[in-house]
Design goal:
11 helices; binds zinc ion; 14 strands; five-stranded mixed beta sheet; seven-stranded mixed beta sheet; Metallo-beta-lactamase, Chain A
Length: 330
């Protein structure tokens, strides 16, 4: 039976097989006429079975609920197209991430552009080839286009006791949205805040400084009065301010680590990523699955972009390879 984390709000844990995130937390908010499901899991049978089983236990039938997709990642949006096929289902998402989810279904051309961008940052052809078949967005994204209802900062969705105000909190993705119930002091955080792991902050072509953008989103959450934060993965968060402070400190350490790795030399994001410490303990960089390498390079790049904004590093592009060098004395 899904855990009731607050009156009328249930956490539904969906398995993410062979994925270091292990589980996705979807949440069902009970309403009077309709319910709201926040995030869906991957478009794969294990998620579909777990979600159907949980909804059945709660007495909720497909078509009895609307969807809120916090952000574009396939573990949050994968089943949205299938669930939206039931008549009357409204699928809410931020404009940018909703459009991006639909672009993900464009197939090879869309992905080719993304992969080419990673080649520019030092990812080799073999890694890019592996990604074409292993990237979770390619394997487990939605089965078709979704007719999203766009939501924006300040919109309010009401389901039962819950008055959910939409918050625009970009950084983890360009159009990431959260929901805040001011009356009950509950935040549905998506992947903005996770309890016991650090959200991946990737580089996005649409965001020149995704880490700086993310840190501003944490500031926005700090201004809220929150008793319970419901994250997209792992444990619930009861002291949100403590957690946002930990996340900020983590990225400060990461920025210092990247500067230490550069140590007077010029390097690509892929070279920096290889030397950063990652939580996949006991596994060497060469043994990382291709998607983890992609996320690592993208995260290194987000930190390098932040350092460039701070004036600590400069970019140098030669022969279609972007590299970074410290600007201070070596
Ligand atoms: Zn995510």
């Amino acid at each position: 039976m899904p855990e009731e984390v607050a009156p009328g709000i249930y956490r539904i844990e969906l398995p993410l097989p062979q994925n270091p995130l292990k589980l996705l937390n979807a949440y069902l908010v009970r309403g009077e006429r309709r319910n709201l499901l926040v995030d869906t899991g991957f478009n794969r049978q294990e998620c579909r079975d777990a979600l159907c089983g949980a909804l059945k236990n709660l007495g909720v039938r497909p078509g009895d609920f609307d969807l809120f997709i916090t952000h574009l990642h396939a573990d949050h949006s994968g089943l949205a197209a299938d669930l939206a096929a039931f008549p009357g289902t409204v699928v809410y998402a931020g404009k940018d991430d909703g459009a991006a989810v639909n672009r993900l279904t464009d197939g090879p051309l869309f992905w080719r552009a993304l992969l080419n961008d990673m080649a520019r940052h030092g990812c080799d052809a073999e890694l890019l080839r592996e990604l074409e078949t292993s990237h979770p967005g390619i394997r487990f994204g939605p089965s078709g286009k979704i007719n999203f209802t766009d939501v924006d900062e300040g919109d309010v969705l009401t389901y039962g006791e819950s008055e959910l105000r939409v918050l625009f909190v970009p950084g983890h993705t360009p159009g990431h949205m959260a929901l805040y119930d001011a009356k009950r002091r509950i935040l549905f955080a998506g992947d903005l805040i996770l309890g016991d792991i650090t959200p991946n902050i990737p580089r996005w072509r649409e965001m020149p400084d995704s880490l700086g953008t993310y840190l501003k989103s944490l500031d926005k959450v700090d201004a809220l009065d929150t008793a319970l934060t419901l994250p997209g993965h792992r444990n619930l968060v009861f002291d949100t301010r403590k957690r946002t402070d930990e996340l900020r400190a983590h990225h400060e350490r990461r920025l210092a680590e990247v500067m230490g790795i550069l140590d007077g030399r010029t390097a690509s994001a892929a070279e920096v990523a290889r030397e950063m410490t990652w939580s996949m303990r006991g596994i060497k960089w060469t043994e990382f699955p291709a998607p983890q390498k992609w996320f690592a390079v993208s995260e290194a790049l987000a930190h390098l972009d932040r350092l460039a904004v701070l004036g600590s590093v400069a970019r140098e592009e030669t022969n279609a390879l972007m590299r970074f060098r410290p600007t201070g004395p070596s």
